[in-house]
Amino acid sequence: MASTFDTVANIIAETCDIPRDTITPDSHAIDDLGIDSLDFLDIAFAIDKAFGIKLPLEQWTQEVNEGKATTEEYFVLKNLCARIDGLVAAKTA
Amino acid sequence: MRLEYFQMIDRFVEVNIDERKVKSVCKVPMESPVFEGHFPGFPLMPGVLLCECMAQTTGWMVSVLTGFTGLPMLVGLRNAKIRNAVFPGAELTFEGVIEHVGSGYAMAKCKGKSKDGPICDADLAFRLTPYPGPEFRLAMVEMGKKVGIEVPELMK
Question: Under a CB-based contact definition with an 8 Å cutoff, are residues B102 and B63 in contact?
Fold first, then answer.
């Protein structure tokens, strides 16, 4: 079974036409991979479908804009994957 | 349908909230300034306006599903195909389904057809943006009523 990171990395590679081998757990989706907010909608949609969750993108964006969180907390892939795992766990709890 | 005013939908004939499905109908006008340029002596419905029909059909449904809390702005169009030419006088039906709504965005699929068969289909993405003011929301609700968007709890 593919790990959360592998699934997310494959989604990013396919959605944004980014070479898979350049995507690492420490990659920042925006700063390192150059993914913009519009592309991230497609990624979020694909992640939602793959994991059966709903990423709270609007809430994350608001928290970043209000200075309550950094983009690293949500958009560095290992952190994003941890949040996905948390949402999956909450759904099955 | 008034192409020059971007009034693409004549009326909605199905708004199924439970299944997130929507169906609209419209008739391409026999005359429009659009046809003076597209094309002189050979009036043809622009494909980009067929895309607009799909965007309006599913965009209105996003408004319904979100309780008219923001304006669904078209931000993405994928796999768009224009399958047949559409001429003045054609009666069109657009069927859409909202695949995702929430977290400030929506994803939809829509297809259009005429009596001669499929004319277009696409995947659409919307970002929900705040209305410029409460009057705008009321205007949208009223505009929706005129084309058959009837969701009683929204009309208060």
Answer: no
Quote the CA–CA distance of B20 and B63 in Å, as a whole number: 11
Enter the pTM of the model. Answer: 0.88
CB-based contacts of B83, cutoff 8 Å, min separation 6: B117, B118, B119, B120, B121
**Six-digit token string for B127:** 């970002």
Of all residues in chain B, the one with the smallest CA distance to A49 is: B100
Determine whether A9 is exposed, middle or buried from the number of CB atoms within 10 Å of its CB (0-12, 13-18, 19+). Answer: buried
Annotation: CATH topology of A4-92: 1.10.1200
pLDDT at B68 over 90: yes
Provide the ipTM.
Answer: 0.78
Question: Which of B21, B2, B31, B25 shows the shortest CA–CA distance to B65?
Answer: B21
List the single residue in A38, A42, A57 with the smallest CB-CB distance to B103. Answer: A57
